C-alpha cells in the first residue's frame, strides 16, 4: 500500500489497542489465566469498564466493555463527545468480542491544533475531550482524546498524565512488549489512515475490505496462548507469519 499524507502525520505511534469484551471481570480473569498481568483502570473494580495489559513501554492492550444500553446512546454520546462518537460507541456495543478500535498517540498537548489541521485535510474529528479517571489506588489519570467522524478510522489520544507505564512488569507468559499492530485498511480509508498515522513503526497496514485491527504481535512469548482465553483477540509472537486475509464478519469489524 503506497500513499503519503499531504502534511506530517498527526501521530507517530500507537497508544493502545481496544478489545471489546462482554464481561470485563471474566475477561480479566481469563487474561490472567493466559499469563498476563492485568490491572483495572478505574475504581471500584466491580463497576469498571476498562482494564489494561501494560508493558514497560510502547503500546498496550485495553480491555473494555460498554455500559448497559450503550447501543441506543448514539445521540447523547454525539452531544457529549462530538459528532461521530455516538456511532463508534454503538459499534463497540453491538459487535462480537474482539478488537474494536485503535488509539494513536499525539505526543504533545496541542490536540486541538492537530484536529484543526486534520479537518483542513479532509479528516474531520469531533471535539477534544479532556478526561479524568480515578484509579483503583485513588490517584487520578488525565488525558484527552478526539474521535474522527468516520467511525472506522483510528482515534487520537494524548499521553496519560501522570505516566502509567510501570517500570517493572513481568507477565508469566513471557510477553515483554507489543511490537506490532496489524491494521487492515479499506482502500477508500487509506489516505485518511496515512494522514493520521503516517509510517508509525509499530503499525503495519494491509489492504482489507473493512478497516479494522486484525492482529497484535507480542515479543517474548514463551508458549502459544490459548485462544479460548483471549475473547476474540488475535495475539501472535513477534516473529509470526502474517495472518491470511479476513472478511471481518465478526469480532474485529470497525464498520
The total of helices stands at 5
How much of the sequence is in beta strands?
A: 25-35%
Major sheet: 8 strands, mixed
How many angstroms separate the termini? Answer: 20 Å
Note the run of SSEs as H and E. EHEEEHHEHEEEEHEEE
Radius of gyration: 17 Å
Give the fraction of residues assigned to helices.
10-25%
What do the pLDDT scores average to? 88
| Number of beta-strand segments | 12
- Spatial strand order of the main sheet: 2-3-4-1-5-8-7-6
The 3D shape can be described as globular
The structural class is: alpha/beta
Low-pLDDT stretches: 247-255
Task: Give me a quick take on this structure.
This protein has 255 residues and is α/β, with parallel strands linked by helices. 18% of the residues lie in helices and 27% in strands. The protein is built from five helices and twelve strands.
